[in-house]
Amino acid sequence: MARWKSRTAIAASALFTTAILTACSAPFIGGGDCSPKGGSTGTASQVLKVVSDSKTVGAYNPKTITITSGQAIEWAWEDTGNPHSVTAENGSFDSCLQKAGYTFVVSFATPGTYAYKCSIHPDMKGTVNVT
């Protein structure tokens, strides 16, 4: 009887651990409820890096960039410790949460200021100025 209880406890523990790990990891690789939108193909005029930062968990480098209308920007994920997104404040583009090695290109046809952020790190913000 003791052996049965021990096996049951181990099985229950393994099932619980699997459920927790699955629940925590599913949205971090482009999964979950998010589908990338607003991305484009083509060659970017500039590359911004998505990097780690001890003050804000992550950062965009550079934080602010200026391009002319019709150009595209590529974000390249380099932070190996945390997933991040590039999510436009106006909803026009969203990379969803991604990990190191991912790239996301957006073309900007209309002049204006495009603020963006990481969907899970509120202090991680950037701006694209399009002239």
List keywords for this structure.
18% helix; 131 residues; four-stranded mixed beta sheet; Immunoglobulin-like; 8 strands; 2 domains; single chain; 1 helix; alpha/beta
Any overview of this molecule?
- The protein is of the alpha/beta class.
- The chain folds into two domains: 28 residues; 85 residues, Immunoglobulin-like (Sandwich), CATH 2.60.40.
- 18% of the residues lie in helices and 32% in strands.
- Strands 2-1-4-6 form a four-stranded mixed β-sheet, with no helix packed on it. A four-stranded mixed β-sheet has the order 3-8-7-5, with no helix packed on it.
- A hairpin with a 3-residue loop joins strand 1 and strand 2.
- The protein is globular.
- About 16% of the residues have low confidence.
Could you spell the SSE succession in H and E letters?
A: HEEEEEEEE
The largest β sheet comes out as: 4 strands, mixed
Strand % is 25-35%
Mean pLDDT: 83
From the 3D coordinates, which CATH architecture of the largest domain would you assign? Sandwich
SS field, number of helical segments: 1
**CATH top level label of the largest domain:** Mainly Beta
Task: State the helical fraction.
Answer: 10-25%
